[in-house]
Design brief:
The complex is a heterodimer of chains A (about 400) and B (about 350).
Chain A: H1 2-31, E1 47-55, E2 58-65, E3 71-78, E4 81-83, E5 85-88, E6 92-93, E7 98-104, E8 113-119, E9 124-129, H2 140-162, H3 165-170, H4 173-205, H5 212-239, H6 245-273, H7 277-302, H8 309-320, H9 322-332, H10 336-364, H11 372-391
Antiparallel strand pairs in A: 1-2, 2-7, 3-4, 3-6, 3-8, 5-7, 8-9
Helix pairs in contact in A: 2-7, 2-8, 2-9, 4-5, 4-7, 4-10, 4-11, 5-6, 5-10, 6-7, 6-8, 6-9, 6-10, 7-8
Chain B: H1 2-32, E1 37-40, E2 46-49, E3 52-54, H2 67-71, E4 74-75, E5 78-81, E6 87-104, E7 107-114, E8 122-126, E9 130-137, E10 146-147, E11 167-174, E12 179-184, H3 190-195, E13 199-205, E14 214-223, E15 233-236, H4 242-245, E16 248-251, E17 256-262, E18 270-274, E19 279-283, E20 292-294, E21 296-299, E22 304-309, E23 315-320, H5 324-328, E24 332-338
Parallel strand pairs in B: 4-8, 6-9, 8-13, 14-17, 16-24
Antiparallel strand pairs in B: 1-2, 5-6, 6-7, 9-11, 10-12, 12-13, 14-15, 17-22, 18-21, 18-23, 19-20, 19-22, 23-24
Classes of the chains: A alpha+beta (about 400), B mainly beta (about 350).
Chain lengths: ~400, ~350
């Protein structure tokens, strides 16, 4: 018995390895004797100017090799006029390697500039900057500024949203479900909005080789699954402890919203950092309005338990405070790649929150998600968000 | 047993990650200690960097084509006398189209060449001489030589394409009219054959000669290195910024004669502006009396002429396209004028007889 068990185990292992062995042979053939097969076409160099910073009398471009071959950076220009420049650490870039091109240039505030980089075969790549603005340097004043903005956008609106708790507590079950569904609609809209934003940032700033849309899809799904899994565990554990299920659900919602708000803070910080000040004013007001609804989402499950002011404030902080950190990161160390990643994580988190609330409604209600309250609540939530997105 | 081995694996993984992150932070620290390099910007600013310098400042070490040699290099051909006493000048010109040349530091471009350079050799004859050009096409495409000037139709280099891989054709005519003319390949697609570098200068001197002078040739050209029908570089004699970093040395009170030919494609105009001086301008060089006394002449495609001037004061004087875009992309140079008080013997004009 023991012996046959062992041999069957070995068989399983071998049968698992055999396809791998063939796969290795397949790949080795293409790289080795079969490499002529792939000798079609000419690989073209490609670089992407990912970021442009304007500092004192100098323009700094972060360049990444996003093509299939090693490239040599040979020249820099501004507005298609050749400029002497420095490149750090050196001018040879392996695949996906980045370098900093420093171009001494007396630039003018708020003017548009096109930064061009030429590689060794004479191909020129460029990036347009709509309005030059001084790169933000981390100092206490700016950190404070971003903290205030993050508080304005993240914490205060969420807290205001939480103030609806007494109201939600007093309404009938049906109306309560309507409000829960309303937050579902609002959050669904926010999630889709984040996905759109992430795809937009990747289209504008990331090279095609990053497969921007698929990157967004992958991270959204991973973030969703990760949070979904931990939410299940947390809620199960909470049921058997003193915390209570409503608090656990509210906590998961707060964490999801917090991740989302980190992405929002990132967008705001980046908008200020990139000099689109007017745009970021809209962004700030818009986010503040949207985020009150996030308060409702947290308050909704809590309304069926004891009112715990301390816990409520804590949850509000978990949901709102990440906006501050996001603003710091976005303003000081902006990179389109991390931006895409965090926007996607935020979207996945929001979708997880949506699922959590829907399940809460199902359990609370009559195992029914097609009631008039739920359908109308979700629809009205979407419509409200769409309308505010037009006006903001 | 299994669990402990897993634990060992995980802990060793952590050690590896920690060590490698330490290495990366440390190596960053090491590179920060690297020696700093300094460079001067076009506006005179000084910048320090730990990295490398990207500047079209040309170093002669890596140079295949020497614009300083080309500047004053005139080819008079193999000279012999025909029975009637006419001077015969024979030239051999070989076309190639497979050469990759570093046209600006780090920028490699497929140049098509007459006798290995862009522009091709400056061909020079005296009015009335017989010019015979043995043309060999060693390229991979058909090419021809089309000279501006007066000649029989059969030697116009348009309809008599010369085959790739060693095709031959002999062009022959009497050198006329007096002046400075371009020559270029006239194979279709014509723009492609010109912008890749198949052109040069053909000078016909008057029988009585011109006054003694320090003579030079400047072909105003452009390079479209990314093939988007817009020039990435402009230059006098191919290499961008060359004469800015290697000023042309001339003397005070010495007559300077520049044969200027505009071969820029894509852009409708080019021009030539001289600093601290004005020049006498002879359009196409066909007349011995200058038409203009100016410091700025605008030239369209293959428009050309002779510019004559003398500097009274020593020093550095810029010359460049006053279409400033072109000068900021390389068409800019400097005349370094030396005091000529001690030199009483200006250079003789050689007619290669």
């Amino acid at each position: 018995m023991e012996l046959s068990n062992k041999s069957s185990k070995a068989k399983i292992i071998i049968s698992g390895i055999i396809p791998f062995a063939f796969l290795i042979i397949l790949v080795a053939y293409i790289f080795g004797p079969g490499s002529d097969l792939l000798d079609l076409g000419v690989p073209l160099p490609e670089i992407t100017i990912e970021k442009v910073d304007f500092v004192d009398s100098e323009i700094r471009a972060t360049v990444r090799n996003t093509g299939p071959i090693t490239v040599e950076i040979v020249m820099a220009d501004i507005n298609d006029r050749i400029q002497p420049a420095a490149i750090e650490p050196d001018r040879f870039l392996e695949r996906y390697e980045t370098a900093l091109v420093r171009i001494p240039f007396a630039w003018n505030e708020a003017e548009p500039y096109t930064i061009g980089i030429t590689v060794e075969d004479g191909t020129r790549f460029e990036k347009e900057i709509e309005a030059a603005a001084h790169a933000l340097e981390p100092n206490l004043e700016l950190v404070g500024f971003f903290t205030i903005i993050g508080t304005y956008v993240g914490i205060i609106p969420v807290m205001i949203g939480l103030l609806w708790l007494p109201f939600i507590k007093r309404i009938s079950k049906n109306k309560y479900h309507f409000f829960l569904a309303l937050t579902v609609g609002l959050l669904l809209f926010l999630g889709i909005d984040s996905v759109e934003e992430a795809i937009e940032v990747s289209d504008e700033n990331l090279a095609g080789s990053f497969n921007g849309t698929l990157l967004v899809a992958t991270i959204v799904v991973l973030s969703f699954l990760g949070l979904y899994h931990s939410s299940e565990k947390l809620v199960k554990r909470a049921e058997s402890s003193t915390i209570g299920k409503p608090v656990a659900i509210a906590l998961m919602i707060a964490i999801g919203i917090g991740l989302h708000n980190f992405g929002e803070g990132l967008a705001i910080g980046a908008a200020i950092g990139l000099g689109s000040i007017a745009f970021s004013t809209f962004l700030i007001v818009g986010f503040a309005l949207h985020n009150t609804t996030e308060g409702i989402a947290i308050a909704a499950p809590m309304s069926r338990g004891k009112t715990m002011i301390g816990k409520l404030v804590g949850l509000g902080m978990i949901a709102g405070a990440p906006a501050i950190f996001g603003a710091w990161v976005g303003g000081f160390v902006y990179s389109p790649f991390t931006s895409v990643v965090f926007l996607s994580i935020g979207a996945g988190a929001i979708f997880q929150v949506v699922i959590t609330i829907l399940r809460w409604i199902r359990e609370e209600g009559d195992k029914n998600l097609s009631s008039a309250a739920v359908i109308s609540g979700t629809s009205i939530g979407m419509v409200i968000m769409y309308l505010t997105s037009i006006f903001v | 047993m299994k669990k402990s081995s897993l634990r060992i694996m995980i802990s060793s993984l952590i050690v590896i990650i920690a060590a490698s992150s330490l290495y990366f932070t440390l190596s960053g620290g090491i590179s920060a200690l690297q020696e700093e390099k300094t460079f001067v910007t076009h506006s005179g600013g000084i910048v320090k960097t730990t990295g490398e310098i990207l500047d079209p400042l040309y170093t002669s070490a890596t140079m295949e084509f020497d614009p300083m040699k080309y500047l004053r290099d005139f080819n008079y051909g193999r000279v012999s006398q025909l029975s009637d006493g006419t001077t015969l000048r024979e030239f051999t010109i070989i076309a190639e189209d497979n050469k990759i040349m570093e046209v600006s530091p780090g920028v490699f471009y497929n140049v098509w060449t007459f006798n290995g350079t862009v522009p091709g050799p400056t061909i020079r004859a005296t009015e009335g001489d017989i010019v015979r050009i043995k043309f060999i096409n060693n390229g991979s495409k058909e090419h021809t030589m089309h000279f501006h000037g007066i000649h029989e139709a059969q030697f116009d280099g348009v309809f008599e394409s010369v085959g790739a891989g060693g095709g031959q054709f002999t062009y022959e005519w009497k050198a006329e009219p007096v002046g400075v003319h371009p020559y270029h390949c006239h194979t279709m697609p014509l723009e492609e054959h010109i912008v890749h570098g198949l052109y040069g200068v053909y000078i016909v001197d008057p029988k009585e000669g011109r006054p003694q002078a320090d003579e030079m040739v400047m072909v105003l050209n452009g390079l479209d290195t990314d093939f988007d029908t817009e020039n990435n570089f402009y230059a006098a004699n191919t290499i961008p910024f060359y004469y800015q970093h290697h000023p042309i040395q001339i003397n005070t009170d010495e007559l300077i004669r520049v044969y200027v030919v505009n071969m820029v494609e894509f852009d409708p105009i080019n021009n030539f502006h001289l600093h601290g001086n004005l020049y006498h301008y002879y359009p196409t060089g066909t007349d011995t009396v200058p038409s203009f006394y100016t410091d700025m002449i605008t030239l369209s495609q293959t428009e050309r002429g002779i510019m004559e001037f003398k500097y009274d004061y020593p020093g550095k004087y810029l010359f460049h396209a006053h279409k400033v875009e072109f000068s900021e992309k390389g068409w800019v140079g400097i005349f370094l004028v030396k005091d000529n008080n001690n030199q009483n013997s200006p250079k003789e004009v050689q007619y290669g007889t």
